[in-house]
Design goal:
Structural class of chain A: mainly alpha
Distance between the termini of chain B: 38 Å
Shape of chain B: globular
Shape of chain A: elongated
Helix content of chain A: over 70%
Bound molecules: adenosine-5'-triphosphate, magnesium ion
Strand content of chain B: 25-35%
Structural class of chain B: alpha/beta
Strand order of the largest sheet of chain B: 6-7-8-3-9-10
CATH architecture of chain A: Orthogonal Bundle
Strand content of chain A: under 5%
Number of strands of chain A: 0
Distance between the termini of chain A: 58 Å
Largest sheet of chain A: none
Largest sheet of chain B: 6 strands, mixed
CATH superfamily of chain A: MetI-like
CATH topology of chain A: MetI-like fold
Oligomer: heterodimer
Number of helices of chain B: 9
Number of helices of chain A: 9
């Protein structure tokens, strides 16, 4: 028993203390958080834009057709572009998207983190867009009609009546997307970024003892996810108690 | 040409599937200020389509509607400005579930008419008093009964000071014991001179309150007249057989 304990201590020293290897983990974690955070912001921005275009198109299709004018062809083009984007992003693995972004689209860029933010942001945007659109379409059409019949225009109806209801409905799904994104960034090592996962793997390569670094990495992810989940639950409860 | 009619409907058409379905098949009619027009007819005859065309929730495929002299079917007309002047009450209430009764009522006046909150709330409370719901101002819609919801929906529309009120089967989703309280509110409105267009299956209401009854079938106006014309002296076979079924 004492021997086993001693062995663990040695392992720990070897993997984290010697050569200050713990710093790799800290820096890796920093990269993971930076990539996730900015990719999330980019993803939400893209998602809001795409969802707005798509649901506006769906909701007003009949009006556009009947009233004619230039709006219908323009919206059709925008909607088609959104659909192509969604099809490509959701139809290919995120690793492949990351590789294409790094080695083809931004081949001249040395800033791996920025490329990762863009790649993950574009990827996440597609999922955020569909979550938001689902939320908008799930609102009873009577809510739109009530808003419009009072004299609100389409955008005002969305802003004052629909979006506040959507927000509450989609918040859990959006947070889940955030958690998924955090875990997905673990492939950043493919393009030479030392994120949390890559940091653990590098230590493993140096020390030839996989157990400690990899379990440590797993635990760190787990703790972050648990904290986020907790926050989401609290937020949800707060929103619900606001209702009544 | 525009006389003193509030709403002028001219050869209104609503076709679906390229004319295969004619929900409205050439409706021409004028509605004057202060009139209470009740629209009756069998299911699928186009009553809702006609009513919803009046504020362009349904966009006609042909013909025109003039409201207060302005052609609202012209796509250069700002329909949102005209909708503020036309209140609408739906079969399923369509109250905003995330807002209190009071907020449901003041959202339009504060955001669209730029009324100060206090002024909007004061008027909303006065209206709530008239429908005996002042004590429910802070309640949320799902804490109300169906009849209460519909009364709130009516006063919500009234908060915008509309010149005409459109009702699409306002009592059809209600339990029978709540129908009366909603019809009473509508009757009160009519007595105060509100111009109203009402689609309903409540023949008693039509007979008692309507200044004019329109009978529709298959997208056309088949017969129209005073309640006595329509109910006591129906001319067409279709109206006679319709009345035989519903009365
Ligand atoms: N989106 C649509 N596509 C095709 N047909 C439609 C559509 N909306 C309505 N219709 C048709 O138009 C006709 C008129 O419908 P409308 O809802 O106006 O009838 P209604 O008189 O209000 O009937 P009810 O008493 O059942 O409410 C019906 O035959 C209906 O099937
Ligand atoms: Mg109907």
């Amino acid at each position: 028993m004492a021997e086993y304990w001693q062995d663990l201590q040695n392992q720990f020293r070897l993997n984290f203390i010697d050569d200050d290897r713990w710093q790799w983990i800290v820096r890796g974690l920093g990269s993971t958080i930076v990539i996730t955070f900015f990719a999330l912001i980019l993803g939400v921005v893209i998602g809001v834009v795409i969802a707005s275009i798509r649901s506006t198109y769906d909701k007003n299709l009949e009006t556009y057709k009947l009233r004619g004018g230039i709006v219908y062809p323009i919206m059709r083009v925008f909607n088609a572009i959104c659909n192509i984007y969604l099809t490509i992003v959701r139809g290919t693995p995120v690793v492949v998207q990351l590789l294409i972004a790094y080695f083809i689209i931004f081949a001249s860029s040395r800033n791996g983190i920025m490329v990762a933010v863009i790649a993950f942001g574009i990827n996440s945007g597609a999922y955020v867009a569909e979550i938001l659109r689902g939320g908008i379409m799930s609102i009873d059409h009577g809510q739109f009609e009530a808003g419009r019949s009072l004299g609100f225009n389409y955008l005002q109806t969305m802003r004052f009546i629909v979006i506040p209801q959507v927000f509450k409905n989609v918040l859990p799904s959006l947070c889940n997307e955030f958690i998924t994104l955090l875990k997905e960034t673990s492939i950043a090592g493919y393009v030479g970024i030392v994120d949390l996962t890559k940091a653990g793997d590098l230590i493993r390569g140096r020390t030839f003892s996989p157990f400690m670094p990899l379990i440590a990495v797993a635990l760190i992810y787990l703790v972050i996810v648990l904290i986020l989940t907790r926050l989401v639950h609290r937020l949800e409860r707060r929103l619900r108690s606001n209702e009544r | 040409m525009s006389g003193n009619h509030l709403i002028e409907i001219d050869n209104l058409q609503k076709y679906y599937k390229g004319g295969e379905i004619k929900a409205l098949d050439g409706i021409t009619n004028n509605i004057s200020k202060g009139e209470v027009v009740v629209v009756i007819g069998p299911s699928g005859s186009g009553k809702s389509t006609l009513l919803r065309s009046l504020n362009l929730l349904e966009i006609p495929t042909g013909g025109s509607i003039r409201f207060d002299g302005v052609d609202i079917t012209d796509r250069h007309t700002n329909i949102d400005l005209h909708r503020r002047r036309m209140g609408m009450v739906f079969q399923h209430f369509n109250l905003f579930p995330n807002m209190t009764v009071l907020r449901n009522m003041t959202l339009g006046p504060t955001q669209l008419l730029k009324q100060p909150v206090e002024e909007a709330e004061q008027y909303a409370m006065e209206l709530l008093q008239t429908v005996n719901l002042a004590d429910r101002a802070a309640a949320y819609p799902d804490q109300l009964s169906g009849g209460q919801k519909q009364r709130v929906a009516i006063v919500r529309a009234l908060c915008m000071h509309p010149e005409v009120m459109l009702f699409d089967e306002p009592t059809s989703a209600l339990d029978p014991e709540m129908v009366g309280e909603v019809l009473d509110v509508m009757k009160g409105l009519a007595e105060h001179g509100m111009t109203m267009v009402v689609v309903t299956h409540e023949m008693g209401f039509a007979r008692e309150v309507a200044s004019r009854v329109i009978f529709m079938d298959a997208g056309k106006i088949i017969e129209e007249g005073t309640p006595s014309d329509i109910f006591d002296h129906p001319k067409s076979d279709r109206l006679q057989s319709f009345l035989a079924k519903v009365l």
